[in-house]
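dumping this here before i forget
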Amino acid sequence: MKHPLSTRIAALAIGLGAAAFAHAQSTADGIAKYREMLQDGNPAELNEMKGEELWKQKRGPKSASMEQCDLGKGPGVLKGAFVELPRFFKDTNKVQDLEDRIVTCMETLQGFNGAEVRKTPFRKGEMANVTDMATYVATQSKGMKFNLPQSHPQEKLMYEAGKRIFFTRGGPHDFSCASCHGADGKRIRLQDLPNLTKNPGDGVGFAAWPAYRVSNAQMWGMQLRLNDCFRQQRFPEPKFGSDVTMALGIYMGVNAKGAESAVPAIKR
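structure:
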């Protein structure tokens, strides 16, 4: 007895769907194994080493090192600082992430012009040094769990602002951050897209930057990663250290609570 055409079509669709799912899983497993192989010789280790040299080197108009930089746990304390950033800093009266705070220390300790550093293009001059130092600092907290503070009113305000920005659609394609990272099981090309509104997705996303990008052989910090998302949304890219990037950082960082820092990670 022949089955009705509709039944055969449904069966074919189910079979194709199952095959596609199996292929997707196989591809995702293959990418994961590829990253695992690269991790043994992660090129980011070179950025970490350079960052350590820069951190301890006497530089700038004041010929001073960065070793007394206060990243939120007291002058000179690096361990555990990264997993509590972004956070509010009383001396600047604003919320700062790791990269922006490093520029503040370059300004106050070493005498650099912070405004000029912030205007420098990513991967150029002192901004490249900021990325290397951020990589070095972040690795001091590798394996530690994220626990961003939310006790100060500005930290709470930034979290709520970041949440609104994350879900705000706009631009010529009507995209938002949530279009790609607001639900489980999304992918683009061969890339799994983590759900950044919760764990464990944010443990793969926010908790992995700064990271080495294999596709362009570059070390990227979170500021550049966020700017690239805005570029893909066809929005104007935010200025370095903008309130927009701080708010998104706080939102994703709080959502990553309990996730272990994987920095320096490897990304596609």
